[in-house]
Amino acid sequence: MRKPKIVVLGAGYGGLMTVTRLQKSLGVNEADIVLVNKNDYHYETTWLHEASAGTLSPDRVRYPVSDVIDKNKVDFVQDSVVEIKTDENTVILENGQADYDYLVVALGGESETFGIKGLKEHAFTISNVNTSRQLREHIEYQFATYHNEEEKKDERLTIVVGGAGFTGIEFLGELTNRVPELCKEFDVDYHKVRIICVEAAPMVLPGFDPELVTYAVSVLEKKGVEFKIGTAIKEATPEGIIVGKGEDEVEEIKAGTVVWAAGVRGNSVIEKSGIEAMRGRVKVDPNLRVPGHENIFVIGDSSLVINEEINRPYPPTAQIAMQQGVTVAKNLSALIRHQEGLESFVFDNKGTVCSLGEDDAIGVVFGKKVKGAKASFMKKMVDNRALFMVGGVGLTLKKGKFKFF
Ligand code: FAD
Ligand code: NAD
């Protein structure tokens, strides 16, 4: 009898969690499992701010997919997904196609520029290992060039970060630790460096605990960050950015580096495939399936799950993507075994920890506020836990963070 074929797209948090759970729960004769990913490695998206600032090598944030999959049960295909043909149960890849009986879309998110002029051309994003490497090397190039040029352009040493959400703040935490090192390495006067954070909302980390936000802002200001709150990036240009407060107040900030960390959307493959979505995110049913397509699950940053308590979508996080992976693996096993009743997804929010560099952080964990060294310790434990959940003790020992103090 032909075995049902499960195809999982994306080897990020959601995809790897699904596959590693499926390979544990299903026998070799029960299903064919195929995992498709652009690269032959997984990267820890939640560590990319470190690779971008240069406080962690890009190689530290990634590991081969082969480290965590059971090759007897899972076929790995390194390829890029171009489009899903839902009516034909097939996925078009750059170099072939993958037919499926069940599909799990876990392709992650993309940077959302909201159509702001010049951002795509002139700003850097923190999206994957390669954008992170490019950003880190661009900053180093600016420092090296400044030192060597005869007529010094001080704006080379200005770094603007657009968005004071968690990505922007975590990147600033790393950057402010890295800048003194860069100044030493490249013989640059520290006082010439400007780090500016531009946030459209009236506060940093909108919606987060105000006391912890005040702590984070004071830590970062002490390390030299200038915050421009209630100020939106309106345009990026080859020279820097144009920002605005309301309609009338417009200012140009000249900067050698502009980082856009002001939002994410779902993967564009979703819209290209004609699947109904809001900014590339599919409002999935309680079992995490696409309404009208009972054999397609969407998880992670490309999915949208409503928090019924406040009637707003849960923010896209690795935490939710991994929990969705567990539910999808259970539901797929049940479908393959023709068992009744699929599990509804219920998000178990364990909290949020936001790093402020290697040795400082803020967070709310199981409802309790934490800050400083204790929060930083917790952040590393959260990072290690994600490794453990996917790859067990072996992967945690290989890639984990154990420098606690
Ligand atoms: P991802 O983990 O991003 O994986 C998507 C995978 O799909 C990647 O391997 C990618 O290469 C692959 N892919 C993409 N397109 C294609 C294609 N066309 N073809 C083939 N393969 C493709 N969340 C937290 O919970 N806690 C944190 O501390 C935290 N910190 C963060 C820090 C930073 C700097 C950033 C940017 C995000 C952070 N997040 C955090 C959010 C979290 O990283 C994302 O929500 C999470 O990565 C989403 O998981 P995912 O499985 O949907 O996608
Ligand atoms: P975000 O959407 O959470 O924050 C973007 C910020 O940019 C917002 O504060 C917004 O007001 C601001 N903004 C939007 N347009 C702007 C403009 N034109 N000019 C200036 N500011 C503008 O995005 P993010 O920080 O990239 O986070 C993405 C997701 O990843 C979120 O769900 C977040 O919770 C998650 N994440 C979590 C952690 C963590 O748990 N430690 C770390 C990073 C990201």
Written account of the structure:
The structure is a single chain. The chain is built from 9 helices and 27 strands. It has helices at residues 13-25, 48-53, 119-122, 129-148, 166-185, 210-222, 268-272, 318-336, 373-399; strands at residues 5-9, 32-37, 41-43, 62-64, 74-78, 81-85, 90-93, 96-99, 102-105, 109-111, 158-162, 194-199, 225-229, 232-237, 240-245, 249-254, 257-260, 264-266, 282-283, 289-290, 293-298, 303-304, 306-307, 312-313, 351-355, 361-365, 368-371. It has 405 residues and is α/β, with parallel strands linked by helices. A 6-stranded mixed beta sheet has the order 5-2-1-9-21-20, with helices on one face. It has a 4-stranded parallel beta sheet with strand order 13-12-11-17. Strands 6-7-8 form a 3-stranded antiparallel beta sheet. Helix 1 (13-25) packs across helix 9. Flavin-adenine dinucleotide binds at residues 10-15, 36-39, 42, 45-46, 48-49, 80-81, 106-108, 126, 167, 170, 267, 269, 300-301, 316-319, 321.
Give the name of the CATH architecture of the largest domain.
Answer: 3-Layer(bba) Sandwich
Structural class: alpha/beta
Assign the CATH class of the largest domain. Alpha Beta
Low-confidence stretches: none
Number of domains: 2
| Largest sheet features | 6 strands, mixed
Number of strands: 27
Name the shape in a single word.
globular
Beta-strand residue percentage: 25-35%
Q: How large, in whole angstroms, is the Cα Rg?
A: 22 Å
State the end-to-end distance.
57 Å
Number of helices: 9
**Kindly state the mean pLDDT as a whole number?**
97
Q: Walk across the major sheet and give the strand order.
A: 5-2-1-9-21-20
* CATH topology description of the largest domain: FAD/NAD(P)-binding domain
In helices, the fraction of residues equals 25-40%
Bound small molecules, deduplicated: flavin-adenine dinucleotide, nicotinamide-adenine-dinucleotide
